[in-house]
Design a protein that fits this description.
The protein is mainly alpha-helical and 175 residues long. Helices cover 68% and strands 3% of the residues. The chain is built from 6 helices and 2 strands. The protein has a two-stranded antiparallel ribbon with strand order 1-2. β1 and β2 form a beta hairpin. The chain binds protoporphyrin IX containing FE (HEM) (2 copies). The site of one protoporphyrin IX containing FE has 25 residues, from α2, α3, α4 and α5.
Length: 175
C-alpha cells in the first residue's frame, strides 16, 4: 500500500517545477513576451516616414522571426507542462484561477497567432492582431500573479474534482 503523504510538499511531486524545467519555462515565456513587445515597439514607434509612406525599421523583421520561433517553443512548453504541472495543479485545486487563465490565454494566443498567417481580409487581420497582442501583454500580469502567488493547496476534503461523486478521492489516494 502506498503511504499517505503528510504534507502538501510531499503530494505536489513534479508540480513544483524542477530547476531545469522552471528555467526553460522562464526562458521561453520571457522570450515570447519580449520579442512580441519589441515587435510592437518597433512597428509603432521606430518606423520612419519615407517618401512613399511609412518605412519599417529593419530590426522589426528580426523580432518577428524570433517571436515566431519562441512561439513554437511556447506551444511545446505547454504540452511539456500539461500532465505533470497543469493537470496535477488543477486536480489539487491549487492556483486554478491564475493557472487556468494562463492556459486559456496561451490557447487564444496560439489560435490568433496561427490566424495571423492566413487571414486574407485586411480589416479582420488588424483586429486579430490587436486581440493577439493585447492578450499577450495582459498575460504578463497573469504570469506574474501565478508565479509569485503564495497560495497554498486547498483542504484535502474539498476533493480533487468539483463533482460530488469524486469527493474524497484525492489523486494520491488513487495511486
Ligand atoms: C490550470 C493550470 C495550472 C495550474 C492549476 C497551476 C498550478 C500551479 C501551482 C499549484 C504552483 C505552485 C507549485 C508549488 O509551489 O509547488 C504553480 C507554480 C508555477 N506555475 Fe503553474 N499552474 C498552471 C499552469 C501553468 C502554466 C501554463 C505555466 C507556464 C506558462 C505555469 C508556470 C508556473 C511557474 C513558473 C510556477 C512557479 C514554479 C516554482 O516556483 O517552482 N503554470 N502552478
Ligand atoms: C503562446 C504564446 C504566443 C504564440 C503562440 C504567438 C504566436 C504568434 C504568431 C504565429 C504570430 C505571427 C508571426 C508572423 O506574422 O510572422 C504572432 C505575431 C505577433 N505576436 Fe504573438 N504569440 C504568442 C504570444 C505573444 C505575446 C505574449 C505577445 C505580446 C507581448 C505577442 C505579440 C505579437 C505581435 C505584436 C505580433 C505581430 C502582429 C502583427 O503581425 O500584426 N505574442 N504571434
Amino acid at each position: 500500500m502506498t503511504p499517505t503523504p503528510t504534507s502538501a510538499s510531499e503530494e505536489r511531486g513534479p508540480l513544483r517545477l524542477p530547476r531545469i524545467r522552471r528555467y526553460t519555462v522562464y526562458f521561453i515565456s520571457i522570450g515570447t513576451f519580449v520579442t512580441g513587445a519589441l515587435w510592437l515597439y518597433y512597428h509603432y514607434f521606430m518606423r520612419k516616414q519615407g517618401q512613399f509612406g511609412f518605412q519599417n525599421n529593419p530590426l522589426e523583421s528580426l523580432w518577428q522571426i524570433l517571436h515566431a520561433g519562441f512561439s513554437f517553443a511556447a506551444v511545446w512548453a505547454l504540452g511539456w507542462l500539461w500532465t505533470t504541472h497543469v493537470m496535477r495543479g488543477w486536480n489539487m485545486r491549487w492556483r486554478r484561477w491564475s493557472g487556468g487563465t494562463l492556459v486559456g490565454a496561451s490557447i487564444v494566443l496560439t489560435v490568433t497567432g496561427y490566424a495571423l498567417y492566413y487571414i486574407g481580409s485586411r480589416q479582420w487581420r488588424e483586429w486579430t492582431a490587436i486581440a493577439h497582442w493585447a492578450i499577450g501583454l495582459a498575460a504578463l500580469a497573469v504570469f506574474l500573479i501565478h508565479w509569485l502567488s503564495k497560495s497554498l493547496p486547498h483542504q484535502r476534503d474539498h476533493g480533487p474534482y468539483p463533482w460530488p461523486w469524486h469527493r474524497k478521492r484525492h489523486p494520491v489516494e488513487r495511486r
